[in-house]
Design goal:
With 223 residues, the chain is an alpha+beta fold. 20% of the residues lie in helices and 43% in strands. The protein is built from three helices and nine strands. It has an eight-stranded antiparallel β-barrel with strand order 1-2-3-4-5-7-8-9.
Amino acid sequence: MRHLMGVLVLSGLLVACGGDSTSGSTEDAGGEASDPTTTLVAAEVTAPEPEATTPETAPATTAAATVPATEPATDPGASGLDECLVGSWIMKQDTLDLFLASAVPFAGISVPSGAYTYLFGADGTVVADAKFTAQFNMGDTPAEADIFWLHKGTWSTADGVLSIDITEQEAGMTEMRQGGFAVPGAPMEPITPVAGGPYTCDQTSFDLTIASPGGELLATFER
């Protein structure tokens, strides 16, 4: 009986030891038990790393160089209109005296007041406008008269020569005074228009050689 009890106790001890061996097999090499549930959860929540992508490079844009248009060089006389002449010019007083003396058949004529103006347009038109008081002698008596004349036409230049083509003209004497008496003026024959001639020009003055009844005359104009 004692022998049987000893066998049972030994068997119980072996069973107990066998259970410890089995539970030990579930420990990992570091002595810690691995938890399958924890491993599964970790696998589920770990997102895969995104693949490295190379950012797209926008195509290079080549800016077109803007080249300013080059204006062709112009010759002042190439278009037929010298730009130097464009604008308003007033005949100098001494020139006007000489011009009238050669154009009007009165002795000792002079111009105490008034002006003779040329307006050269950039469009090729020209206007010669004269309004002045002329003093002169009629016989032995001094006299004076208010005179006007107007010439319209076109102009051009070439090789240093100014050409004027008059298409419209009118002239008149508004009043004449002599010996203390004043009489109304009357229409008169227009003064022979200046047809042009060789010229020189700068920004402040313009000299024109013109043909007058008394011969060639150098007429000087100023701005």
